[in-house]
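Priority: low. Protein: D-alanyl-D-alanine carboxypeptidase. Input follows.
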Amino acid sequence: MKRALRALLTATTALAVLAAPTAAAAAPEKADRAALQKRLDDVVAAGAVGALAEVRDEHGVWRGTSGVAELGTTRAVPVQGRFRAGSITKTFVATVALQLVDEGRLRLDDPVETWLPGVLPDGHRITVRQLLNHTSGLYDYLHTLPLPPTPEFLDNRWRTWSATELVQRAVANPPTFEPPGSAYAYSNTDYLLLGQIIEKVTGRPYGEEIERRIIRPLRLRGTSVPGTSPLIRGPRPHGYVPALQDGETHLLDYTQMNPSVMGAGGEMISTTADLNRFFAALLGGRLLPAYLLDGMKTPGVEGGTYGLGLFLRDTSCGVRVYGNDGDALAYQSWSYFTEDGRHQVTVALTPDFRGDPDDAVDAFLDKALCG
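Result:
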């Protein structure tokens, strides 16, 4: 549920959609804030129905929106709108797993076989650490599922998937590489297994552990782990996917869907403010001790960019930032925090699949994080 998926959908879909007006939340009239709004508008122009963002820096908090909340309307994107956060879910799951490590209930070098006997053909060779940093080599189950705009994709819209059957689809395919730990390959299968391991260790579903350990203590009131519920409750922008109808490709409102297909790899719903609060708490040392936080920041392979549930990236101004980004098909999001804690940004959009907004998003992130 990352950039490869976005590129695939964009490359296979050519759509004509309504031009979207711009709406901005009130913010101090400063040059840097005007530049942020301009870059958020550029994101929408590059390929989004709507976008929303929250930036925190030495000037305070800026919130902005662009585009529309729903096609065919002029309704502004709600600045506190909720969206499917996709793979940012993985950082929450990783945090819970590492808290269990800190409590002595789980070890990073535990083989998967220890907790999930018989689930993987080579479960004795793959460790919890390798699941967390995507060095397991496990095939990504996502590649076994139909994607938009095929009609088969829509056939699964309301289907409830179990982690077990999705993992089985993955292990029916050969590993991406051998041996485990020798390379990096992003795989949503890794985090489905981590969700199952958390349940084995605690006796509670991973979603309950996220609620108990992170959502409630941090008062993330716009954040939830929906399970099989298709709804996004509260204010929200509508999300869309390309769909073939009568031989033509159209945007279909996909705001409601059964998120169990994403599970522990990407099912969570959140807001820009909540994600900023979460990453500030995590990277500020409130959720994990320093040695485990350092592990999150350390790539699993030399020269890599993914640690134990965190991406690291260098901005255009040479500032190192940590966070994650997520793709939930109808919603895309990015959340990053500077190493010194002075700048933070979360931005989310609803793609229209006319083009690839990644470059425009990168420009927005750089402006927010570099000032």
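The CA atoms of residues 27 and 34 lie 9 Å apart. Residues 3-370 form a domain with the Beta-lactamase fold (CATH 3.40.710.10).
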